[in-house]
Amino acid sequence: MSETIVEIDPIEESNEIGGTKGTKFLLYIIAGLSSAAVFIARTFIGLYAAFIQSSALAISFIVSLRNLIQQVFQFTFGRISDRVGRKIVMLIGIIVAGVSLALFPLIKSGWVLVGGVVAFSIGFSIYYPSFTAIQGDITNRKNRAGLISLITIIGAVATLIGLIVVGFAGEIGTNEAMKYTIILESTAGIFLLAAIVSIFLHDPPREKLKEKTPFSFKPLRVNPNFRRFVIVNSIMAFTMALGWPIFPIVREEYATTLQNTWIWAIFAGCQIIVLLATYKLINRVGRKPLLLLGRIIMFIVPLVLAISIRWVPDWRIYIISGSLSGASNALYMVGQNSFILDSATEKEKGTYTGVYNFFIGISTFLASLIMGFIADYLIANFDQWTILFILNLVIAGARFLGGFSFFFIKEPIQSQIENKLDAEFSTQTS
């Protein structure tokens, strides 16, 4: 016996109920503020760690624990948001992230900064799965990529503006320490604004998850295509995270605070250009091409850093990597979020997001930690800049090869597994 599945547009349906237009408008504002705050914080936390002369090992702990906590804990908080709603979980996460970031300028030790980053990362892991899931709540599979692309554009525009504003505000400082203080405190203020807007957000109508179940890898077990997607992304994430402990050391050496601001502003600007150019076509393009193009180019970042160490010690060369990585990252983020939400059941969007980020967190944690130990040992026993040059070349090769792994994924086909998931879930809870 076959069944005909009629897909109802959640946006049209909830517009009749009321509240979705307002929800989308507030979501756009939150997307802009939170995207700018998170991006600026991530960018300058690493640079601040290098500024206070943290070792490569300390930086590796900062970035590895940051990603482990931000990604792994998302399963728990995604599950909570599936049950209690998106608004309250988002609000708590934004407040925790903003308050913890405001304390960073008081920290002068790399190892103490590790603790501060842990608190900031917990806030992010509370906020982000709810933010992603609410995008799935107000869309269907036909218009989802378009909305995510629009939200990404808004986030990129806000990030560009935010970077320019805090960058020039930082120049008010009379020394580098004061510049970092102004930048970090201004970013904490942006989190506060996002929290205020979140107070007025209403959860869109949706089917809530009522059952209480323990942590489970069920989505990977019953959805082979999603499992392959997670494996491929984990491999690529490992190659990406290898560079995170050493990239800030190079950038802090060859670029000032304001110059780093301009580099990342160009990154955000290129995101905007690509997303605007592809916005009307994004729903017609499969998720796989977006993921493939979005990651295969990322080898250019460590390659350019290596070139700057050996041949072109000028911050302006980073404009090349900033432009290309910004463009490719825009495509990847749209493809990644769309793929996850397309794969998820209507009741478990937060759960799928959390499961995916659990494995990305493990992968990036291991890669960052491994590279931190390797770099710390080699730098202590050999010439620092020769080692950093070689390591960046190795990472470039690993990223290039890792990008090709996206050839092995397939487009998500949710309709074939929806009933299977619900049937298994009912059996487990009966």
Written account of the structure:
By secondary structure, the chain is mainly α. The chain has a single domain (19-203, 219-423), classed as MFS general substrate transporter like domains (Growth Hormone, Chain: A, Up-down Bundle), CATH 1.20.1250. 76% of the residues lie in helices and 0% in strands. It has 18 helices and no strands. Helix 7 (144-170) packs antiparallel against helix 15 and helix 14 (300-310) runs antiparallel to helix 15. Residues 1-19 and 415-419 have low confidence and may be disordered.
Which properties best describe this structure?
disordered N terminus, Growth Hormone, Chain: A, 430 residues, mainly alpha
SSE map:
Layout: H1 10-17, H2 20-51, H3 56-72, H4 74-84, H5 86-102, H6 110-137, H7 144-170, H8 176-198, H9 218-222, H10 224-241, H11 247-254, H12 257-278, H13 287-296, H14 300-310, H15 318-343, H16 349-381, H17 384-403, H18 418-429
